[in-house]
Structure prediction request, 129 residues.
Amino acid sequence: MSKPVLGLVLGGVLGVFDGLSALVSAPNDPAVRAGIVGIVIGSTMKGVLTGLIIGWFAKRTQSLASGIAFGLLVGVALAACVSLMQKMSGQPAYYWQIMLPGGILGIIVGYATFTYGAPAPRLTRTAQS
Prediction:
């Protein structure tokens, strides 16, 4: 499986668990319980986008360390955007509860795409007559 496709699939699957982590991080908040379906859908979409971006990056470089660092950066950055949108809409901002799982998702997807994704095909020059 190519690195972008692996990142896309893995990001989507882990995005579901990222969204469900809201039930653990804010178990007594009635707004979280009432909006869990929207939270899971949004986290899944965020995970898909994160995985696609990380997979694209993994296809372009050969460094595992930079892939993991880039995964963390993308995961935290997209989660920070969600936290800021939440704050701007007048809701209480759950920065750590959103950004921590997003960062973990990015690290896992960054590691997996570099380790298990198919390498990009090597371009070879053809002999000219």
Notes: The chain is about 80% helix and 0% strand. The mean pLDDT is 88. Residues 3-116 form one domain. Residues 71 and 106 are 4 Å apart (CA to CA).
